[in-house]
Amino acid sequence: MPGVLKKFSFIVFISLAIFAIALGLIFFMSKKGENIPDKQVSNEADQLIPLPPSSYSSEWAKKKQENKYQPYKLEQYSYDILKENPDVVNQVKELLKSFSTSKMAVSTPAANMKLSDGREVLLLFGCEEHNCGGTGIVIAYDKTNSKAYLLSENTRTEEEYKILGNPDEEIRNLLVDYYYNE
User: Fold this and answer.
1) Residue 91 is part of a domain; what is its CATH number?
2) Containing domain of residue 27, as a range?
């Protein structure tokens, strides 16, 4: 029995020694090249490409910076407001024939905003359920004039959109701003 114990101990010792050597090699191989400075060559593929600037006028940017026209959030979601207001839905359908409230199934809380000329605008944002990428829609409903305007994503890229309803510059900028910030 003592001979078997010696052989077993010897095998365990050799196994532990091999394991320790393997760990040491792994450790030193992982440290190899750590003190070598990184190459300072810039690769275009690694650089971030910024989003294109929105079409803000300098006047709009100034108003926004002064916080004069910040929207205030409502407690109701865009989808629910559309379900309760068929006149808004009908106006949006005139602008975008394929529109339905299901295209706003995933929505954010609606927002109200008062424009520089005193008009009150309701802002709604949403997208298709389980398919938000490329399906975002912003609706600006001018409560004063009872007129709807629409920003709809055109493709799967978030930089491409179309604006419908021929809004003035202030509402156009409001649509773009709300689109990028919601």
Assistant:
1) 3.40.1420.10
2) 1-33
Cβ atoms of residues 83 and 115 within 8 Å: no
Q: Helix, strand or coil for residue 9? A: helix
DSSP 89-129: HHHHHHH-TT--GGGGSEE-EEEEEE-TTS-EEEEEEEEBT
Residues 107 and 167 in one domain: yes
pLDDT in tens, 43-101: 443 444 444 445 444 554 555 555 444 555 667 888 888 989 999 999 999 998 888 88
Q: Residues 99, 89: contact at Cβ < 8 Å?
A: yes
- Angle (CA) 103-155-165 rounded to 5° is 65
Q: Indicate the pTM of the whole model.
A: 0.60
Residue 87 has what pLDDT? 92
- Give the range with max mean pLDDT: 2-11, 116-125, 158-167: 116-125
For the record, the structure tokens of 168 come out as 């003035």
Q: How many domains does the chain have?
A: 2
Q: What's the mean pLDDT in 108-130?
A: 88
Ranges of beta strands (E only) in the chain are 72-77, 106-107, 109-114, 120-127, 137-142, 147-153, 161-164
